[in-house]
Amino acid sequence: MRTKGSDQNDFQGEEGVGYVARFTNESEQRQGLKLGEIQPTVIDGKLIHVAYLGSPEALVPDDVRRFGANLVKKAGRFKSSAVLDLEALSLSFVKNQNLVSALLEGVYLGSYSFDTYRTRSRGSKSGLKSIVLTVSEDDVETYQTSAKSAKILAEGVALARDLINEPPSTMTPRRFTEIAQEIATTYGLELRVWDEKKIEEENLGGLLGVAKGSNEPPRMLRLHYLPSDLDPAAKKTALVGKGITFDSGGLSLKSGTGMMTMKTDMSGAAAVLASMVVLAALGCRREIYGYMALTENMPSGTAQKPGDVLKTRLGKTIEVLNTDAEGRLVLADALALAVEDGAEQILDIATLTGACVVALGTEIGGIMGNDDSLVSQVREASLDAGEELWPLPLPEKYKKHIESEIADMKNIGQAGQAGTLSAGLLLQEFVGDVPWIHLDIAGPARSESDEGYLSKGGTGFGVRTVCTWLL
Ligand code: BES
Ligand code: MG
Ligand code: ZN
After folding, report:
1. Residue closest by Cα to atom 8 of ligand 1
2. Which residues surround ligand 2, an ion (CB under 5 A)?
3. Number of domains in the chain
4. What letter does residue 397 receive in the DSSP assignment?
5. Which atom of ligand 1 is found nearest the CA of 244?
6. Cβ–ligand 1 contact at 322 (below 6 Å)
7. Domain end: 130, 165, 188, which one?
């Protein structure tokens, strides 16, 4: 951070390439220079990279996030160490705190990579050593604060990505629990762990049913964050995450290709854990519970069978007609616990249905709920966070899709119809009257490319939305 009036001409790094970001003028726009594009230019005999940001009116935080990521990648490509000077931008850019955080989020997330299992280094991804933001004296503190929180948020997203990218035989429910334990100690959170014995004793029948086929024992986790300067007006909030550490489909076995990415089926739980870290680190003033329902979904001689009936924590029974529709079974128990604990609003997040990927693709998540104002609140947060969510309905008249011949409901809907909605309708059965929203992140939880601030693999989708919402 540099204040106005200090030496403005040192944006060229010692041995490196300088960067200037500025809005694209009309003639450049006519030349087809795209937003976020970075081009080398010689200015005063120095090689400078100019990043074009389009027109100031049109700029939104997510453009800046992508620009930050491009920048960090570009600096790596040119093996340069660079200092970024945003002074060339009009003040409207730096005046907006959002955009500064977005820029830094992009920079941090763009430099993420998961290298635990590479024995040959791919080389440092970026040579970008520092970023200089030129701001007026009065604003320094504000921007320093927002720079700090951007870093904490991006580190949270990176934590979620790490958890998701870890191979499924390593990231088991037990390993996930150990990590949650370490986090609880570090951040002074209270952690409650239901092991397989407690899960049985306390009638978490949905989780138990899914876990039956696996040699790995399941876990239910509850993290509790109670801030010292609690805002008395803030609602007690529960976050609930689907944590299937590997989804083979169970006896309703997936195809080989179908299960290739199914280590990512714990992205919801990863998002909950990472969000708790960020919220605690940033001193969120609400009381928050984070539930993570963790198990593998495996086929075996002890696995649950299509046709079996489970009795859930709430007492409601579910006929399991497809063991691959397991997410809703484990979430049913976690949602019931959240209601029991007196949550005043609940958000669940889950890689729940392939149907949602068909409907919205891989860059947009589905949002459903029983409270319209809560849905719009979270949706707004998601747009600010650059994680697009699109509202889907929970139609009363489709409740017939999950009617069972012998139990209170069945775990699949009508074949080929509204699969995301019937999953949502089943979850709704377990939240009673508590305001609740359900995020189906089956699409955006994973990225197939290294585009922008995403990296191939787990994206950590949801962390930024949840934190933006609750902060
Ligand atoms: N984990 C999957 C959903 C999924 C699919 C996530 C693709 C990410 C990418 C979930 O457990 C599942 O298998 N759902 C079934 C439900 C069906 C059997 C009713 C599905 O979507 O096919
Ligand atoms: Mg499944
Ligand atoms: Zn699943």
Report:
1. 442
2. 247, 324, 326
3. 2
4. G
5. 1
6. yes
7. 130
Residues lower than pLDDT 70 in the chain: 1-21, 75-97, 123-130, 134-135
Place of tokens 């489909």: 249
**Centroid of ligand 1 to alpha carbon of 354 (angstroms):** 5
- Write out the residue range of the structural domain in which residue 104 sits: 2-116+123-130
Instruction: Compute the distance between CA of residue 336 and CA of residue 429 in angstroms, rounded to an integer.
Output: 9
Same domain, 162 and 107: no
Residues 89 and 160 in one domain: no
Model confidence pTM above 0.85: yes
Any catalytic annotation for residue 328?
yes
Name the closest ligand to CA 441. 1
**Residue 63 Cβ contacting ligand 1 at under 6 Å:** no
The C-alpha atoms of residue 223 and residue 183 are separated, in whole angstroms, by 10
Residue 149 belongs to a domain: no
Number of H helices, E strands in the chain: 14, 20
Same domain, 107 and 161: no
Are residues 271 and 176 both part of a single domain?
yes
**Are residue 109 and residue 166 in the same domain, yes or no?**
no
Ligand nearest to the CA of 245: 3
Q: How far is CA 416 from CA 216, 354, 371, 419, in A?
A: 33, 11, 27, 7
Count of alpha carbons within 13 Å of 136, Cβ hemisphere only? 9
pLDDT in tens, 185-210: 999 999 999 999 999 999 999 999 99
Q: CB of 258 closer than 6 A to ligand 1?
A: no
CA of 327 to the centre of ligand 3 (A): 5
Encode pLDDT of 205-230 as tens digits: 999 999 999 999 999 999 999 999 99
Q: Which residues contact 222 (CB under 8 A, 6 or more apart)?
A: 191, 192, 289, 290, 291, 292, 337, 341
